[in-house]
Structures are given as structure tokens and as C-alpha cells.
Amino acid sequence: MISKGLILFGFLFFTKGFAQERAENPFIKHMYTADPSAHVWDDGRLYVYPSHDVEPARGCDLMDGYHVFSTDDMVTWKDHGEILHSRDVKWGRPEGGFMWAPDCAYKNGKYYFYYPHPSGSDWNNTWKIGVAVSKYPDKGFKDKGYMKGVGGFAMIDPSLFIDDDGQAYFYYGGGGKCAAGKLKDNMMEIDGELKLQEGLADFHEAPWVFKHKDLYYLIHSDNAKPLNNMVYATSENPLGPWENRGVFMDEVGCGTTHGSVVKYKDQWYMFYHNQALSNEGNLRSICFDKLFFNEDGSIQKVIQTK
């Protein structure tokens, strides 16, 4: 006969093991964070570069700096501190604020941090994509100005993709349009011309590109009302044209949705934000959940967990 004590021990062992598999959502609780861009660098750690919501919950104008977080086990997360603030951006908006969704890329032995920020008080008409550079993924970033050859519509939500051959691609978009192009080796200029991305159905904002096997995936938010979903498209080329594949993650409970997909230690993850800590759509918190593919390359619906 199996004793009650043995059953209880087994239950506690199982639940403890399950609990230690990953952190609970939201996994950053000491500050508000949004728009997570997740990357795995050569040191074997997974890094997340989010934007930072600031109280009071009145809008996105107070977003004024960036932190970076990392883990090596998906359970314990380290806050490396602030890596960039609007005060560090000499060409930026005098009043600060408006430091929106960023991304980071590694090439040429350096880390390149991309962020949208206005260059003038008229923030709505002066957006630029700034670039800060460091030898390290978590510190030492120095602003190097803003990207050249980028513009034409909403200059927000920059996203970088480095292909297997080392070629870097730059994506950005908002207001229903998404553009992309190859980057020069200096990682600050477009090589050639930007190309509007074709085949994206109901594109709103938040592009993110990754590769699985021989297929390229572009995820983005849609225009569903009142809350956006995350949808995805696929292509055999990183610059499209794309084939819409539909919704793979439902709305997150706040007005915007923005995320990234990354593979870490043989498991794919979807990073996103919600408003679980604050119940305020402008005070968001970053989360992650496992992502799975079907045999045909389609993405299974991501289940949001606590």
C-alpha cells in the first residue's frame, strides 16, 4: 500500500518541479514593462529589451527609459538596470518621454539598440529611429544618432532580423503599413530602398521576424476592435511577399498587443505584455508562454498563462 505521506511527497515534488520550470506571469513585477524584444546571445542567456511604462496611467508620453532583463533558466530574471534614457539622446525631444518599443541586434562584435523617439516638441511629426551601440548586451550603450533613409509613415516599432548568412534586415511600421529593407554593415543605413511588405492582412503595428526551418515568419498586431490580436504570416523570403496565416494569440486584455518569438534551449517562446498587475492599459507588464509548431509549419494557438 502506498502511504499518504509518500503520495503527498510525490505531489509536492511534482508541483515544485513544475513551478520551477518557468517564472509566473507577469515575470517582471517591480516595474511596468511592455513591448518585449527577446534575444539569445552568445553567452547563453536570454535577454529581453522592453519599453517602460511610467505612472500615472495617462498615456505613452511618460515612457522615458529602457531596462534590460536576462535569465539562464526562465525562472530567475536579472534586472541589469537602465541602459538608455531620453536625457542621453542629444538629438531627441527636449521634453523627453516617448521612448517606445525597442529592439536589439548583434553584429560586427557589437550590440545595436534601436528605439523610436521624436526629435522635436512636435512629437507626432518628428519621429526618428535612434541607434545606441555597446560592446555588451546589458550596459555601456552610447547613442550614435538616428537611422538614415527611413521615413514616409509612422516611424515606430523597429525590429531587426539577422539571417543565417549574416545579412541584417530592418523592419518598422504602424498605422497600417510595414516597411523593410536590408541594412548596410554599419547597421545604421538602409542598403538600397525600403520595401512595403505585401500580403500582410489587417496589419496594425509591431512587426517581428524570425526563421523556423526554411520558412520566415512575420508576426504583428491586427486592427481587431476593441482589442488587438497577434497574427502571423509566412514567406520564403525575409522581405516577402507574405501569406497571412491568421491569429495565433488572442488579445491580451489591453488596447495594444506587441510581442516577439525566440527559441531558447530547444523550446520556442512567445513574449508579450498585458495589464495583469495594474488593470490599466497604459501600465503594462511583460509575460511569456511556450509556442509550438505543427508539422506543416503553422503555429499553434498560444495559451496565455499566469
Write the layout of secondary structure elements.
Layout: H1 4-19, E1 32-40, E2 46-53, E3 65-71, E4 78-85, E5 103-107, E6 110-118, E7 127-134, E8 142-146, E9 159-162, E10 168-174, E11 177-182, E12 195-196, E13 205-212, E14 215-221, E15 230-235, E16 243-249, E17 260-264, E18 267-274, E19 285-291
Antiparallel strand pairs: 1-2, 2-3, 3-4, 5-6, 6-7, 7-8, 9-10, 10-11, 11-12, 13-14, 14-15, 15-16, 17-18, 18-19
Site (Important for catalytic activity, responsible for pKa modulation of the active site Glu and correct orientation of both the proton donor and substrate): 157
Organism: Polaribacter filamentus
Pfam families: Glyco_hydro_43
Summarize this structure as a short list of keywords or feature phrases.
single chain, 306 residues, mainly beta, Tachylectin-2, Chain A, four-stranded antiparallel beta sheet
Structure description:
The chain has one helix spanning 4-19, and strands at 32-40, 46-53, 65-71, 78-85, 103-107, 110-118, 127-134, 142-146, 159-162, 168-174, 177-182, 195-196, 205-212, 215-221, 230-235, 243-249, 260-264, 267-274, 285-291. It is mostly beta strands and 306 residues long. It has a single domain (4-291), classed as Glycosyl hydrolase domain, family 43 (Tachylectin-2, Chain A). It has a four-stranded antiparallel β-sheet, with no helix packed on it. Strands 5-6-7-8 form a four-stranded antiparallel β-sheet, with no helix packed on it. A hairpin with a 5-residue loop joins strand 9 (159-162) and strand 10. The chain is globular and about 50 Å long. Mean pLDDT is 93; it is low at 1-19.
